[in-house]
Design brief:
52% helix, mainly alpha
Length: 277
């Protein structure tokens, strides 16, 4: 009897050790590189987790999941309705579902026409979406107006990026004019009134969008070159766009250190989803 008990205890210990090792392995698979920067900028702010889409999107593997950004599965910084939960994607506002350009006199950024919505673009990455809440922001009124607009524009740029990756990776270079979509967004952004405290941030966004546009231009001009997918992460435009997205995130975290958690989560999500890497 004592031997049976000893064998049972030994087996139980082995199972526990294996379970712990598996958990550790899963933790190591999370994206590590940018975690230290995010934590240093907001040490008490959880980072939103990403979630899987309903069906995988045909985009290059190296472009999925924002692989150089962190993923904290337990984070939930936003109030209900602002973010996706761990099992469902939040519905985008009605304005994000449109696929035709708005009247420029409305003051709203262009709504791109790429065959998918902002909500679908986030799901395809996959990436959680947190909506910045102006009513709880510590930003000045002019800064709030600017941020509300630029974040809508960034959402549209994310939709263009995802559509470009999906279409180009399957050899479809003609159904959507990706370059024209970037041009519309860049033209609008270049004409925006930018608060003086956010000038550097705005330049980061312009740089991110410009480099993304150049990447797709180069790919379109050299359609048979497998390097655009096989060596995606080493592409100079991809790296420059990624650096600009990260720099923009850092600028906002430094400019608004006392923002509520929901808005810091939004800062993270917009720029991580915009980032190619």
């Amino acid at each position: 009897m004592a031997k049976k008990i000893a064998v049972f205890v030994a087996i139980l210990v082995c199972v526990l050790v294996l379970a712990r090792a598996y958990s550790h392995t899963q933790d190591q698979r999370q994206k590590p590189i940018f975690a230290a920067t995010a934590q240093n900028a907001a040490p008490n702010t959880p980072v939103p987790s990403e979630q899987a889409p309903a069906a995988p999107a045909p985009i290059p593997d190296s472009a999925e999941n924002g692989s150089a950004w962190p993923d904290a599965a337990s984070a939930d910084p936003a109030k209900p309705g602002d973010t996706a939960s761990s099992s469902a994607t939040v519905s985008a506002p009605a304005s994000d579902r449109a696929t035709t350009a708005l009247d420029p006199l409305s003051g709203e950024p262009p709504i791109v026409n790429v065959g998918l919505t902002v909500e679908q673009a986030y799901a395809a990455l996959p990436h959680r979406r947190t909506v910045w809440d102006a009513s709880n922001s510590t930003a000045a009124p002019d800064e709030q107006a600017y941020l509300g607009t630029i974040f809508k524009l960034v959402d549209q740029a994310i939709a263009v990026k995802v559509a470009g990756l999906q279409n180009y990776s399957r050899g479809d270079f003609t159904s959507v004019d990706i370059d024209a979509q970037y041009e519309a967004l860049l033209n609008y952004a270049s004409a925006m009134n930018v608060p003086s405290a956010l000038t550097t941030y705005h330049q980061d966004i312009l740089a991110a969008l410009s480099n993304e546009r150049e990447f797709f231009r180069d790919w379109n001009a050299d359609r048979t070159n497998s390097a655009f997918t096989a060596q995606f992460q080493t592409n100079p435009q991809v790296q420059a766009a990624s650096a600009a997205s990260r720099a923009g995130y850092g600028e906002l975290m430094r400019a608004f250190p006392n923002e509520p958690a929901v808005n810091k989560g939004a800062f993270y999500d917009y720029h991580c989803a915009l980032d190619f890497l």
